[in-house]
Structure formats: C-alpha cells, structure tokens
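Reference record
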Amino acid sequence: MNEPIQPEIAEKIKQLEKKFKNSGQDLGSYLDGLLHDRYLTYWDYIHLDTLLSLQIPRTHFPDEEIFITYHQITELYFKLIIHELKQIIDDKLQTAQFFTTKLERVNRYFRVLINSFDVMIKGMDRDQFLKYRMSLLPASGFQSVQYRLIEIYATPLVNLVNVKNRSQFSEQDKLEDVFEHLYWKSGATDKETGEKTLTLKQFEYRYTPRMMRIAHQVKHSTIFHKYLELPEKEQNNVHLIEALRTFDTNVNINWLLMHMGAAFRYLNKEKGEVLATGGTNWKKFLPPSFQRIMFFPDLWSEEEKENWGQQWVAHQFNTVK
C-alpha cells in the first residue's frame, strides 16, 4: 500500500508545476530528469580535479608551483571583489547599510590577500625565484586585467591618472583620451624613448576593448558616483565612510606595500636592481606615494593626500633580505 503524500510535499509539487508551466515541458519530464540524475559530490561541484590540474609550472624548480598557485588564488579573490562591486553599482535602494555590507566583503577579501602575502614575501626560495622567473618573460602580474577592472569600477578614470598629470583632465574629457594616460601605463614605458614594453603592448591588445567597454558602462555609475548619489543622510553614515576609506587604503596603499616587500626581497640588490618581469620599473611604479591614486579623494584631508602612502619608506619589508 502506497504511503499518502504529505501535505507539505503536495504543496511543493504545486509550486513546481507553476514554476515549470511555461517552460515547454511538464513537471513529469523534470522529475524524470531528477530521478536519473547522479548524486552531487563535493569534488564534482567545485570541479576539483580540473582546478588542481591548472597549476602547470614552466620549470623544474619546486617553488614555482607556490608562485603560480598564489597568483591563481589572488585572481579568484579579485573575481569575488568584482562580484561585490557590481552589486553596488546595480543597486537601486540607495541605503548605506547595503553599500557598507558589500564593501565590508570587499575589504575582507583584500584583508585575506594582504595578510597572506607572506607566501610571496617569505615563502619562496630567492635563488629559485630569480631563475624560474626568467622562463616567465614577458608575462607579469602587471597584466592582471581584473585588478584594472577593480580600479575602473571603483572610480572615474580621471582619478587613475598620475597625480602629476591629473589636473590636465576632467570627467568631461573623452574616456579614450584619459585612458591613454592612466598611471599604470607609465610603469611599462621607457621614459627616454616613450616605447611601450612588450608586456604592455600584449596587455593593451588583449584587454583594451574590454576595459573601455566597462569604462563606458560605468562612466556615471562607479562606486565613487554611487556614493555621491546617496541621500545626504546616507552619505554621512560613519560606517560607510570608514568602509570606503578602508577600501581605498587596502587597494592603493596596503596591497602595493605588500608588492614592495616582495620586490625588495627578490629584486633589490646593493648595486642597482633586478628588473621585474616584463621590464616594469617597480621602484617607480609600485610606491603609492609616487602615484597618489585615490578612489575617493573627497574623503581624505589635504594632509592625508599629501602624505599618501609615505609609510612605504619605513615599511618593515623594505629591509627583508
């Protein structure tokens, strides 16, 4: 004798029938699929075997696997950060609470990345790194498009121009003109000849269309704009302001300081320095006090702007050998 269908199950069946009514198939067809479907496993859900097959070193040095794995982890966190920023941009509620919640997630992701950067600074053999890095040319972390997209989603392009040239541009200028003067391009351009490195040429060819498309999409709706569109009461929320300032500091000071620490450990030497992969000039490109990039300049005092990132000079990793 068949057991009677429980009322709560019958109700769920009705809801499923309603859901699939306009799909072109009846509920029975979907139930057939469910009946024959395999049980889901953890390793299938996260595609574990595929994920673990993506670390493919170019050399026989054991520590290269650390290097490639950490960079892949970083890109996954960047993906999560962009996921949260896009939700802020798409939000129509205009509440400080929603804005703050999403930014706190972003700051949490960056905190994990910053706190784990010891893996890069102290977690690899220096001699191995200086050898296997030569097999990576002209690839460079400089070519992380997701990091550039975080910047584009966060603030108007004009705020991403080197501080020395920023006054020459405004939000009324064509995005294409401003884009040509973004601060990071100077880090991979020969100052004497004006010639772009192969690393920069490759990056621009591969990603400029994507970056420009997104820059146009968020021209008036970056995180900076979304904050200014909030009602005045919401703009003055102290928790939101703190979250914005923390985001700015994490990206434009702390994250760069971690890279400075790694560069000093692996690339600095008493007589000159070892060039970074791709030919980027890390001593002129990485220090935050040189570029003074700020996503939300209105949230910082003139003194804070003037001293932006100055702490890199005395940063503890500058003396790491």
